[in-house]
Amino acid sequence: MRIGAFSRRTGVSQRLLRYYEEQGLLAPRRRPSGYREYEEGDVRTVQSIRTLLAAGLSTRTIAELLPCTVNDGQVLMPACSGMLPDLHRERERIDRAIADLVTARTTLDTVIAAAPPSGEDVDADACLAPALGEAVTH
What we know:
It contains five helices and four strands; from the N terminus they run ααββααββα.
């Protein structure tokens, strides 16, 4: 099927499909005219790519791991246990990112909790400072 039909079938934009191809994640056949020709197996490949992206993996990591996966149309699974260390490494990276976000939220909660009650400004002039993103003119 051509890219338009394939895009509708997978729910992925043509632009993203081309990007997946550029990243080496998808390799459609080319017609003599240059048009991309997708096969039924490519639908599962796109499903696998979307699953791994949703899991927080980069396209670079997906390119390394995708050939080592099996997608039965329901579940994406490692084809062999050899890729488990890579998956565990990615999970640890995500765990660190979550911990960093929790720390950031806790810090923000501390700042929010230190605020005076509504209507009781400590330094009203400080509130006249330009808001973030506003240009300062002199």
